[in-house]
Amino acid sequence: MCGIIGAASSRNVGKLLIQGLHKMEYRGYDSAGIALHQKDHVTRLRALGKVQALEDLMIEHKPKSKLGIAHTRWATHGKPSEANAHPHASSEQIYIVHNGIIENYKELTKKLKDSGYQFASQTDSELIAHLIHHHYKNNDLLCAMQLAIKELEGAYAIAAVDLNHKDQLVIARYKSPLLIGVGIEENFAASDPLALAQLTSDFVFLEDGDTAVVKKDSYEIFDAKSKSVNREVTHLDIETSSVTKGEFSHFMEKEIFEQPQSASNTLESRLGSNDVLDNIFGLGSSEIFSETKRIQFVACGTSLHAGKVGRFWFEEIAGIPCYVDFASEYRYRNPLVEDGTLFVTISQSGETADTLAALRYAKDKDYLSTLSICNVPTSSLARESDHVLFTNAGPEIGVASTKAFTTQLVSLLLLSMSIAKSQDKNPIMREAITKELKDLPAAINASLDTKTAIQKITPAIAEKNNALFLGRGIFFPIVQEGALKLKEISYIHAEAYPAGELKHGPLALVDDSIPIVALSPENDLTEKLISNLEEVKARGGTLYVFGEGQDQFTIDSGSYIGMPKCNKFIAPIIYTIPLQILAYYVACHRGTDLDQPRNLAKSVTVESVSYTHLTLPTKA
Ligand code: AGP
Description:
The structure is a single chain. This protein is of the alpha/beta class. Helices cover 35% and strands 23% of the residues. The two termini are 36 Å apart. The structure holds 2-deoxy-2-amino glucitol-6-phosphate (AGP).
């Protein structure tokens, strides 16, 4: 994880680098640091905690410089501390920032220690500075970087400066995102174009194995064989208003209330009057869909929940079976790939290491094709998949995913309709779904009106430490998503169950101290769900039920919150909204840092800390 940024300019870069770090705090916020070149020395400032702490240090020290690198960290190797914060230095000569994980960290550290280098941190990143220093000859930082990365195993995006050059950054990429931002009399490097949104709209995305020299008025890129190469410049207009909170108290709140618009953005130019349009997943996708016999979904967290909802739609609308797997588990078994299976990844960021690794693993298997549903057009996942549908939700900054999830659901409905269309299945159903989707933004708006009723129940839930979420059928993955939202931002332990499973164990948890949140839309399972809720009532459980028209259902303890009437296919999207609102207000009530909850980061671009890097206690 982590976000890196660098700048070479004819103006002072300190403020620009800090602004860029703020935009990348979604990548981690355990510590932040900056190194600024100042002719005869490099000033390094590092602070524990969020970028604001580093900004305060900058205000105090006021360093001026036209060349610098900076970093915001999500700790993998070594706890969050000032010593473990980047930039890391070697002999006050080489300074680096790194995003990724170096897997052969132990061997390289030993080798460097044996040749006399002293380490000041417990990170796997510091060795990169020493390794570059070790290879640094004839003032050639680029060559030192190219030799150093040949020894690295793992994933990295690196930016380096050295004392002898006050005008250049050297950068390198392998399996971690890195791009050059092209400006006028200034050029930049960053993990995400968002970090440079206010500075330029022209970006060059590096490929795996690339290195580059970036100066204020030029840049040159070299491929894995150190041969100078041209990479295309991509013009991207990143709306800066979408990275500010506006009138809202938190990004999450803003993003919840943006959902009528984000859903309509996902639908734009994708629906005709009675059906989904052809080839919205790219040219040639219709042919692939006509041969698709089953789907393998792979994703993480919220995106995985979207896949679980999607399974119901693919079975009903496209009449094909689906498998849904945790990306972090998928490649550690030996999946048997049946003929005609389409491999589908779902990801907001498109940079989640587990999902990307699963896609790369799947490419060596006999899948029909790979397809990704993704929110970030420039992401690795989007670039490496055969077909892509962008969710067009706009930047999502709150760590807890909201509008990204509902736009993924809309995209999955479009995908299941596209496959059904290519196979001539269910035309009447497709027409009905088209109509429902056209009403979706208005229906989301109506469900946002549950806010006032939800605010009334939040104090009672906020004082508890556990909660149970119940749903049935397609609403089970929706309550799983609701439980995930509550835990990640309010730190309340929450579990989700299909309501029919209660009697097989979890009913033992029910007493008057555990809030039970249930979704009870009008559908074929309503009666069964209500009898499950009666079981809870009989045990004195406190129920918070979101439902439509079940006036006959009385609640002794808790509340019934009426939902707007909504049609079958869009109902899972509509019922997601009150669960997001509930989690948001409960977290506000508990006073957590809900846009940046503890221990998490928006984009998880590392797999995990490898076991071999941990120091285990030795047996006495
Ligand atoms: C959800 O609120 C999360 N923060 C998390 O579960 C997220 O969905 C997961 O890490 C996957 O991210 P992606 O969609 O960017 O791949």
